[in-house]
Design goal:
about 425 residues; conserved putative lor/sdh protein from methanococcus maripaludis s2 fold; Elongation Factor Tu (Ef-tu), domain 3; six-stranded antiparallel β-barrel; 24 strands; rod-shaped
Length: about 425
């Protein structure tokens, strides 16, 4: 009985001790659940914070490579312009006439004095023959007048001696003198007439010479404006049926580039400074050039100043009216340690620079791990997607590329690509 009672006692559930045994277990589950929720919330907040960071790419500032020579430098300004000829002429005849022969075509090289065209010279030849005949007639008249003057001279001398001796009257001497003076006057008149005839002959000869049109200088014919049979004239007349020019002649040795530079940046350009040209037709061909002059006047309608740029070497591929892109170069500065000043600046992607008003300065954001530093820089020329930075960034520094409007000094960023 005792054993049965002991067994029943052991099997009995003590209701007062059970809550004491289960209370710690419940508190542990609540603590574990709360900790899990806090960890999940923290991870979610961290994820949201990281995902909300501005995403940027990284670009490395590269030094501008200087070419050989004392004129090598970095581009401080770019401008567009056109190839023009300082020596160019519309060749025309000095007189109005019908074009009889044409000896040129587009692209033909001619030398100074070469015959370009001939006009119908029949009228000029006839006028020359008439002028020659007039000269011949005037010469004959002069010879006749001189002969008459020669014949009257001894008669007048004899009458004067006879009048002195009282042989003839004073009236007879006066008549003899009048005849002598008249013959001398005839000689003077004939000489004057001969001079007029000779001048007319020279004019007629020049008119005939003017029917031959010659090249005023050595160059290349770029346009042909008239055809044989058309009337040409140095004046624009004839209701549109008269050609005012025969051809256009260009001196290829006088080619240069004219560009319009904004007056905001004209201080960067000086006469004699080096430059590099790239023709639109040959974008990969860098042509050495130099600044001839800055024209000392501005265009108020465009707020620009004209700059003349010359070629250091000639090439037959350079043609008038070609579009050109000019990069004005700064002379290299003396420097050491490979700094940006020593190399003349660095280049960055254009998307890494936020240009200020005017374009002379800008803002870049330099990367320091996952933060950025706002830095103001001095800008050079922009070429395509590359922007030259003259000062403010050193070679090798990493800058942010992306939507720069979302960045601020010291802001955290997410770098998604390294370059």
């Amino acid at each position: 009985m005792t054993d049965k009672s002991e067994l029943l006692r052991q099997l009995r559930i003590d209701r007062h001790e059970r809550p004491a045994q289960t209370a710690p277990s419940r508190r542990w589950w609540w603590a574990a659940g709360l900790s899990g929720l806090l960890i999940a919330a923290g991870l979610a907040a961290l994820f949201l914070l990281h995902s909300s960071l501005p995403m940027v790419q990284a670009a490395v500032a590269k030094p501008v490579a200087l070419g050989a020579g004392a004129d090598a430098g970095t581009s401080v300004l770019d401008a567009s312009g056109y190839v023009v000829a300082r020596r160019q002429a519309t060749v025309s005849a000095k007189i109005t006439g019908k074009l009889a022969q044409l000896f040129i075509e587009e692209g033909v090289h001619v030398k100074e004095g070469d015959i370009v065209a001939k006009l119908d010279d029949r009228n000029a030849s006839a006028a020359l023959l008439q002028a020659k005949a007039g000269v011949t007639q005037a010469e004959s008249t002069l010879a006749q007048a001189k002969a008459a003057a020669t014949d009257i001279t001894p008669i007048y001398e004899r009458d004067r001696k006879m009048a002195a001796a009282g042989v003839i009257s004073a009236t007879a001497l006066d008549q003899s003198k009048a005849t002598f003076d008249a013959r001398q006057t005839d000689v003077a008149v004939a000489q004057g007439n001969l001079a007029v005839r000779r001048a007319a002959l020279e004019i007629a000869q020049r008119d005939l010479d003017d029917t031959i049109v010659r090249a005023p200088f050595t160059g290349v014919v770029t346009t042909k404006n008239a055809q044989p049979g058309e009337i040409v004239s140095p004046l624009s007349a004839g209701g549109g049926f008269t050609r005012s020019g025969i051809c256009t002649l260009v001196d290829m040795d006088s080619l240069e580039v004219e560009v319009d530079v904004s007056e905001n940046f004209i201080s960067r350009v000086q006469a004699g400074e080096p430059a590099t040209l790239k023709l639109n037709a040959y974008p990969d061909w860098a042509i050495p050039a130099y600044v001839i002059a800055v024209v000392p006047t501005a265009d108020r309608s465009k707020a620009t100043v004209k700059v003349r740029v010359g070629f250091k070497s000639r090439d037959p591929r350079i043609l008038p009216e070609m579009g050109a892109r000019v990069s004005f170069l700064s002379r290299p500065q003396n420097g050491t340690n490979g700094s940006a000043n020593a190399t003349g600046g660095v280049t960055l992607p254009a998307a890494a620079v936020q240009a200020n008003a005017g374009g002379a300065t800008g803002i870049v954001y330099v990367l320091h791990d996952d933060t950025v530093e706002r830095r103001e820089v001095k800008l050079g020329a922009r070429s395509g997607d590359a922007q030259a930075v003259i000062a403010g960034v050193s070679s090798g520094e990493r800058v942010a590329v992306g939507d720069l409007t979302k960045l601020s000094d010291g802001a955290h960023v997410k770098v998604v690509d390294h370059s």
